[in-house]
Amino acid sequence: MDAVETKSSAGKLVVLMVTAFMDMVGVLMVVPLLPFYVKDMGAGGLVVGLLVSSFSVAQLLMAPVWGRLSDHYGRRPALLIGLTASAIAFVIFAFANALWLLFLMRLVQGAGGGTVSVIQAYVADAVEPKDRAKALGWLSAATNAGVALGPVLGALALTFLGKSGPGLMAAALTVLNIAFAWRYLRESRDMVEAAEVRSKPKVAGRSRQAVWRVASHPAEPASRLIWIYAIAIGAFQGIISILALFLAVRFGVTANTIGYFFAYIGVLSVVSRALILGKAVDHFGEARLSRIGLSLLTLGLAVLPFMRPAANPLLTYVPLALAVALLPLGTAFTFPCVTALLSRVVPSAERGLYMGVQQTFGGASRVVFPIVYGFLFDRVVELPFLLGAVLVALTIYLGRGMGEYAAQAEAKPA
User: Fold this and answer.
1) What is the CATH number of domain 8-185+208-411?
2) What is the pTM (predicted TM-score) of this model?
């Protein structure tokens, strides 16, 4: 890649990072408030789990569709439509006065959230294979900067603008983001190749075939990577869905203070992805680093439920902070590396499709895990954490030999 191409790729990545950052700020202005809104409406952990899962239902249905359409027509249009869905969802949230409106908001948001696979394919299009994990890490750093800032803005909007404030502010921010992306986001897809793909005879049910291939051939490298991603993201998101309830029960956290806990997670995610991930990839390689990340995530899930208040605040919050820190650190090492490896083992013409399939399996796990975790949390507070730790630990085995296979796949002629 020459200097001009490198500069062009860097420019595309920067614009995508800004877009993803602004999008995540809006999302995290409202998501931490959901459990408290549900609680105010008289529901508990199971309903919170169902609400979180409704997003993933829409996402898993739409992700392969977005991926395939972006392979055919480009990444940029798909991303703009996804952002528009988010703006509509935030407006619904602002005026939600019943549980069904909260569910509607999450379904609309999830349909737009299916473009996560398109964002990943955008990065894979624009960046050399050896730099994809780092680039995905930088993109994750940008989104997690949004995770850090969004909850704080949401709490401030709730305090000063009332219950509709967070949703309306998030919607306004998303409209600005759409205008920014429309003006500055350039297409990353090779449209010559896309035209060739469109000219070929259509294969009915291509997305379903790819999904079935992963389910029926779990030993194949691409399938193993997708299963690792799905189980780990489900376990992590399941815990995030009940984290506010756990902190409220165990440490007395409220709707006005939960944002600061999510901000802490976001800051750690930014630091680990922006300052640590790149050097760690160079030192360990993507495959080995993903296994290290899975180990850290397992440890965090295993120790977090045993954190309890102590008479000394220092002895309460320092251990809690250390236990929580293992979650963003583990995910920072796991997900960019797994996605980068997947981009290397599938053909470029099917990159968007398989990124979509990854999000479908991840979405399915994000449906199941929050519901199961909410059900278990209502009975034994510690049980969902321990279940997640066991399942994530099992995925470490799936990553064996993945680095060698990725290298062999790249060495093959196109």
Assistant:
1) 1.20.1250.20
2) 0.69
